[in-house]
Amino acid sequence: MLSVEGLNVHYEDLQVLWDVSFEVNDREIVALIGSNGAGKTTLLRAITGLLKPTSGYIHYDGITLNNKRPHKIVGLGISMVPEGRRLFPKMTVLENLEMGAFLKDARQEKQETLKLVYEIFPVLKERSQQLAESLSGGEQQMLAIGRALMAKNSFLLLDEMSLGLAPLLVENIFEIVVQINNAGITIFIVEQNVPMTLRVSNRAYVLESGHIVRQGDAKMLLNDSNIKEAYLGMSPV
Amino acid sequence: MGQTLIYGILNGALYGIIALGIALVFGVMRYLNIAHGSLIILGAYGSLILFRLGIDPFASIPVLMIILFLIGTILFKSFFSHFIGFSEGNKIKNSLLIAFGLMLVIDNLATLIWTGDERCITPSYSGISFEVFNVRIPVIGLAGGLLALILIFILHLFFTLTYFGKSVRAVSQDHEAASLMGVDINLTYLISFAISVSLASIPSVLIGLQAFSPTVGIRWFNKGVIVVMLAGLGNIYGVFTAGLFLGILEAISVYFFGAPYREVTGLAVFVLVLILFPQGLFGRKGG
């Protein structure tokens, strides 16, 4: 579905991603783990068109995304829940969700999709008339995910969902991610929270200083001693 | 006193509409269009031409709206679209520079075409006023005030009920997030700029009915930008109220201190408000 080949990205004169290649197949949950500053968000910004890669290819369902503008890429089927949520602060919960359904096709199914989103996140229905900026951190994360779902796209990018959230909430949200995937949506999840992420994913890639250094089955990586040491804070046995 | 207040309110409504146009462009794309006043004067000349062709000034408003909308799209595509991706600070500086050049071109073209003479559109109802409770309300002023209210109402409906209106608000709050929703932000910028220029059509006619000459545009821009800052930069809603505030304030100062102090009082209070409320009276960042 999504395939990235030999991607190089520069941020002004600094190279941030080096020859990055990976793929995400239909209905998978694939994770990209790495510490702060590894280049994860840069990669997602390149996929969604917010950044132009220097070289390499990004293909989605056979279409090259490389030089397309962000709003066109959303139209092709990829939605993102951005790092830091990026809600519209002075708009209500309902208005934020409505903006999620901005695309022509999504707009037509808006009412039904809204019902679904309210079922997954009942708190959003309660707070539908409140301004997005007045919500708690966890509620904002739910709104960000709900808003991305409103586009009815089949590919979802999740950027650092768990940042700043209490552990119980994080568990809750990861459960919902699995739910969403079961409903047929392919998920590419970028995270610092390694154990949770590997537990819900099929496969994972490890990004270190802009390079993909490991890849494989998620459970296998979870049990790998190097990963344990580097990302789970466990000392080598 | 009542009489002064009425004039203050009517003037304030005019300031408010001018400020609305400036605030829209600033709020959405952080451009400061110093040529907005000159565009208003251009519209006044347009209304004058139409008046000589037999069209009532108020009836010319829809025509001017469309023409100014088109002019706005041409201006944006030709001059203002090139730096839309710059940082906020650079957008303000560049837009100011380009718009200043535009202002000079418009003002001088107008002087060439129509001479520097002061003009005024004088329909048959020019001097008529209503008398209510010992206070005289000019018909033109009243019509202007009503138009302003209707405009505010329509804009409110536009921003809250239409998808495009909501997308304009979204773009002004977080343009990257808006593009992730599928909003074509360049198109949004273009149309917002064009709407702002077309909003100049109402002040065009109201000022046309008073007095205007090719170079007074900047004075009206100054009023407008003071109101925008009073309301809080980026705030589109508080702008009209802030306009009324300035209008009433000026009127009161005329009553107590006399006409020469009108401008000074307005400016002095403006400075005071910014010192005490740096965010503006109603403002916070983003609209």
Describe the protein's architecture and organization.
Chain A is built from eleven helices and ten strands. Chain A is α/β, with parallel strands linked by helices and 237 residues long. In chain A, α3 (93-100) runs parallel beside α7 (137-149). In chain A, 44% of the residues are buried. Chain B has one domain (2-276): Orthogonal Bundle (ABC transporter involved in vitamin B12 uptake, BtuC). Chain B has twelve helices and two strands, in the order ααααββαααααααα. Chain B has helices spanning 2-29, 36-52, 57-80, 88-114, 139-161, 163-173, 175-180, 185-198, 201-208, 217-231, 238-257, 262-276; strands spanning 129-132, 135-138. Chain B has a two-stranded antiparallel sheet with strand order 1-2. In chain B, a hairpin with a 2-residue loop joins β1 and β2 (135-138). The chains are: A alpha/beta (237), B mainly alpha (287). The A-B interface holds A 48-50, 69-71, 74-75, 79-80, 82, 86-91, 95, 98-100, 102-103, 106-107, 147, 151 and B 163, 166-167, 169-170, 173-174, 176-185, 286-287.
H-E string of chain B? HHHHEEHHHHHHHH
Would you tell me which CATH topology of chain B applies? ABC transporter involved in vitamin B12 uptake, BtuC
The number of distinct β-strands of chain A equals 10
Task: Assign the structural class of chain B, choosing from mainly alpha, mainly beta, alpha/beta, alpha+beta, or little secondary structure.
Answer: mainly alpha
Q: What is the first-to-last residue Cα distance of chain B?
A: 36 Å
What's the CATH class label of chain B? Answer: Mainly Alpha
Task: Tell me the number of structural domains of chain B.
Answer: 1
Q: Poorly predicted ranges of chain B (pLDDT <50, ≥5 residues)?
A: none
Q: Which percent range describes the beta-strand content of chain B?
A: under 5%
What's the CATH H-level superfamily name of the domain at 1-26 and 35-77 and 188-237 in chain A?
P-loop containing nucleotide triphosphate hydrolases
| Main beta-sheet strand count, sense and barrel state of chain A | 6 strands, mixed
Rounded to an integer in angstroms, the radius of gyration calculated over CA atoms of chain B is 19 Å
For the record, the CATH architecture of the domain at 1-26 and 35-77 and 188-237 in chain A stands as 3-Layer(aba) Sandwich
What class, by secondary structure content of chain A? alpha/beta
Largest sheet of chain B: 2 strands, antiparallel
CATH class of the domain at 1-26 and 35-77 and 188-237 in chain A: Alpha Beta
Count up the helices of chain B: 12
Based on the structure given, which CATH architecture of chain B is correct?
Orthogonal Bundle
- Principal-axes geometry of chain A comes out as globular
Largest interface: A-B, 27 and 19 residues
